[in-house]
Every structure is written in C-alpha cells, then in structure tokens.
Amino acid sequence: MAQHVADQSYEYSHAHGPRTPEQSRAVRRKIGMVTLLLSVITIVEVLVGIYYSKSHVSAGTWTMIKWFYIVLTLVKAGYIVLVFMHLGDERKNLRNTVLLPMLLIVYLIFIALFEGENIIQYVQDLMK
Amino acid sequence: MAQATLDIPAKKLWGGGTSPFGASYGKLMMWFFLLSDAFTFSTLLVSLGYARHVHADSWPLVEKVFHHFPFTHAHLPLLYVGLMTFILIVSSVTMVLAVDAGHSNDKKGVLFWLGLTVVGGLVFLGSQAWEWYTFIVGADGVMKTVVIDGEVKEILVQGANLQYNEYGHTLFANFFFFITGFHGFHVFSGVVINAIVLYQTYQGIYEKRGHYEMVEKAGLYWHFVDLVWVFVFTFFYLL
Description:
The complex is a heterodimer of chains A (128) and B (239). Chain A is mainly alpha-helical and 128 residues long. Helix content of chain A is 73%, strand content 0%.
C-alpha cells in the first residue's frame, strides 16, 4: 500500500532554518541597497522624461535616451528577478528553466522588427 | 545551507526521491505560470511598439497626456506615474521582508509586512482608478473628423473611449486601457491572494504546517506584477 508522503516543501526551500543575527542583517542590508537602487533609477528615469522630452531634443539624442531607458529597465528587472524573487539563489537547473525560454521574447522582437515593415507595406498596398 | 546542496551529481539528482530543481511542486509551477504570463505581456508590449511605429504621426507625446496630479492643477508630466511606480516598488520590498520573516518562522513579522503589502497594492489600485478617471474625462477636447454610419462628421471629442479620444490615434487609448487594465487586474488578483495568505497566517495555518512557503509563492506572483509594471512604465509612458 502506498504510504502517505508528508509535505516536504520546507526542505526544498533554499533558505530555511534559523539564521544567525549576522546573516539576517546581511540579508536586510542587501534588500535595503536594492530598494535604494531601484528608487534612484526610477527617479532618474522620471527626471530625464521631464527635462529631455521627445519634442525638445534631436532625433539622435532621443535614440540615445531610448536606449538609456531600455538598459535601466533591464537593470531594474534583473535586480527584481535575481534578488527579490531569489532566482539568483536557486539551483542552476531552475534558473535556466526560467531564463532560457525568455530568449523567445528576443525572437518575438526580432520578428516584429524584420517582418513588421512588410506587413505595413502590405496593408498600405491594400488601402490603395 | 544552500551551497551544500548545489553539488549533487546529476545521476543522483534526477534518479528520483529528491527534487532536481531544489524547489517544491507549488513553487516550480508558480515559476512556469509567471513564464507564460511574461509571454502574454511581451506580446502586448510588442504589438504596442508595432502600432506606435505604424501610426507615429498621430501618436501623442505621452508626457503631454499624463501631466495631472491629484489636488493640484499644476502641469507635472510623468510625476504621478513615477509615484505609482515607486508605490509598487515599495510594496515589493515589504513583500520581500514578509518572505524573509517567513523564513525565520516569525508570524508577527509576516503579518506586519504582508499587511503593508496589501495596503500598498490597494493604494496602487486607487491611483490607477484616479488615472483612468482623469484619462477618460479628459480636458478641453478637440474637434475631430469621424465617420459615423458612413457619414463624415465633425464632432467635439472630449476625453477617451474605445472609439475616439482627444489625445491622438484611437489605438493609443485602446492600448492604454488594455495594457494598464490587464496589469491592473493582475494587481487586483495579487491583492486578493495576499489578503487570503494574510488571513491564513493570522489563523496560524502556516505555523502549524511548520513553514511559510505559501508567503514565498504569493511573493513570487507579487514581484512579477511589479516587474511587469517596470516594463509598462518604460514602454508605454517613457518612450
């Protein structure tokens, strides 16, 4: 007869058991640093958005600002996923299982950039 | 702690009897769900990019649309959305602290930080309701040439609905409603999940179980909601 297997998820959890006060302090310091970083990035983004409006800067500067935003967004996302969601502390198996499929999003952007122009052309030809 | 379990040989790891991912069933499934949700949001944002590119000439400057702030008539572009982002980040931090308290089986700590997270979520939802209201009501309105029942008419368009809006192309308002609405619904369900976990913590269910992994799982979902907002903030409001 199959025996009931008790819930063992506690054993699977990456950070369990009592921690020394020193470890707790280190964890909190890390959380505090990441919070500060995320807040500063958001403030910088908003300030750039206010003072360097698309209507006030040249096309070249705007392209640079756009990339600046995208890089800052990816930095923020990285810190949220790796520190807040603790993916950085998980086993490599789990990390790859979650992160590698994200490459499909890169592929989606690639398709949108390279096939999008054709679709626009196609729709415009239909409108004629 | 964690480091000791990292170097298990692959044969033993996948041979059964142990979790090869070092994560419980529930946590693993939460990660997979979030992965699929990330794909949903990425398709929304990519189609937003496509629509913007096609209708670049009639797409409004976003900071000219969102410059309102509660209790003042001052012209403050992007500041309110920045504040909303900050609220969500802070509620994400309180969630981390709740998960952290759960790791040391600190029931009072979980109750305190998870309670604050629920409050943060509600404040965000309230802010979004105000933003939608301001967006829908609009300001002075503009005259637009529209086609109604095959007739070309000149009408005053004020605020926004799914057919016309005073700001620019129809798709601008449609994407605003759909993307922030879809995200807002995620926040709403996150608040509900967090409230249920808060209640169960209060009842002592997790204390009896011996671990607070449910807080961790709800936390994963909540952080994901924050993560999506970071991208929405950049690709809808900033760019």
